[in-house]
Amino acid sequence: MAVTVSETAAQRVSSFLDNRGKGIGLRLGVKTSGCSGLAYVLEFVDELNDGDEVFEQHGVKIIVDAKSLVYLDGTELDFVKEGLNEGFEFRNPNVDGECGCGESFSV
């Protein structure tokens, strides 16, 4: 099982961590939410929890809890800019469907 991060996303995460002044990485998880069932969660990590998996690429650690990893296996975290909009994008091969507003997904 694996989660990957693009070089662009890794640079952005590294910048956020530097500005924050602390943290060992970024947690990628899922929570029950929205009309399709699941939503992505991103948060800074200061210490690891039991059962966390750590994936490191481009000098950045992405931490995923065991329950979320089932839904996130094979996901690539990217950071994209389109016009005035920018943000993290999740390329998850497990997704069966997404809601119309793009806030949640199902597997």
The main sheet comes to: 4 strands, mixed
**N- and C-termini, Cα separation:** 16 Å
Which fold name corresponds to the CATH topology? Hypothetical Protein Aq_1857, Chain: A
Rg computed from alpha carbons, rounded to a whole number of angstroms: 14 Å
Strand order of the largest sheet: 3-2-5-4
CATH class category: Mainly Beta
Helix content: 10-25%
Strand content: 35-45%
Shape: globular
Can you name the CATH architecture? Sandwich
List the main descriptive attributes of the protein structure presented here.
107 residues; alpha/beta; Hypothetical Protein Aq_1857, Chain: A; four-stranded mixed beta sheet; three-stranded mixed beta sheet; 2 helices; 9 strands; 20% helix
Could you walk me through the main structural features you see in this protein, from its secondary elements to its overall organization?
The protein has 107 residues and is of the alpha/beta class. It has a single domain (4-106), classed as Sandwich (Hypothetical Protein Aq_1857, Chain: A). The chain is built from two helices and nine strands, in the order E-H-E-E-E-E-H-E-E-E-E. It has a four-stranded mixed sheet.
